Amino acid sequence: MEGASAASIEPRPTGAKLGFIGVGNMGRGMALNLSRKGFALLVYDACLARVEETFPPSQVAAGGLRQLAQECDRIIFCLPDYTILQRVLFGSSSASSSSSADEGDRGLVAFLKPGHVLVDCGTSHPVWTQETERRLREMGITFLDAPVSGMVAKAEAGTLSIMVGGDRSAFEVVEPALWAMGKEVTFLGASGNGQLTKMLNNVLFNVSIAAMAEILPVATRLGLDPQQFSEVVGKGSGQSFGFDSFAGLVLARNFEAGKGGYPLAAAFKDMQTFEELVHARLQADHLPSVVAGTMQTYKEAPPPCLCCLPVASCALDKGYGAEHKGAMVKVWEERFGVQVAATADVAAQPPNTSTYA
């Protein structure tokens, strides 16, 4: 709730079982925190072995989606993207109406009843979220969007930031479970607002990383020591969380995605979604003239929040998509004929391995 804290909302479990689908890098830590804090948990993943090696048999949904629907009135999802969630929920279109189809082909919704509450903790498209919420609401099923920010370390520690959109009464039902996984839980109103908030937050973060990826090669090309320059920026007005998080990794030539959050290819989707929503939602013919002029500027010369799209796209084209977002620096390094690297004594120090939004 607005203004609430972990101290004011005790994560008390209810008697009914809580379902959890998706125990990959993020989901594993989130589900483990629910289990440690006393929630009666039933866990499912497409890779059953992944669940069995982490959770006791009593918490493994060996019976699949049907078992989850039958035993759990609240189900949390932590899946890589909304296209996967779409398949888990609704199955394949060809099998959705066939009672003899495989459970995975039919989808979870085939086994749900009115009153179920579903919570999407993954990163999904805001428009898809709203459409899905309406579709499920017509079936008597409540769908909340509750994307998380903080990455793997915070998922394991139970200190994620969670942004929630949807029905308030349903939010209050699942709120204790959310506090078991996070240190900040904010209810943001209508369906899709959680996903929209996370997307916009990520855009700001990505812009700061793109700026870092450009400025370090520029400084190096102009004759500055990139290590010294980074130290000065870290103490000056140009400092940002994105710069602090990724400059050290770049200087150490460490582009492993696990050290810098999501791979560039996965993070790029937020920028694409932002561009799409700007053009689809903020149509010039529906805005006052002064704002319409701004929209024309969007079309002719993208503003700062979209200017990092070309360099990110170029980095993907060059094969850096599996590396973290700091790999955008390589595009500028190649253009300026330099390499950003720390001096030997600094390179030997551990890089910044903080977790990121």
UniProtKB/TrEMBL annotation:
One of its GO terms (molecular function) is NADP binding. It comes from the Eukaryota. Residues 192-281 form the 3-hydroxyisobutyrate dehydrogenase-like NAD-binding domain. InterPro entries: 6-PGluconate_DH-like_C_sf, 6PGD_dom2, 6PGDH_NADP-bd, HIBADH-like_NADP-bd, NAD(P)-bd_dom_sf. Residues 17-189 form the 6-phosphogluconate dehydrogenase NADP-binding domain. This is 2hydroxy-3-oxopropionate reductase, putative. It comes from Acanthamoeba castellanii (strain ATCC 30010 / Neff).
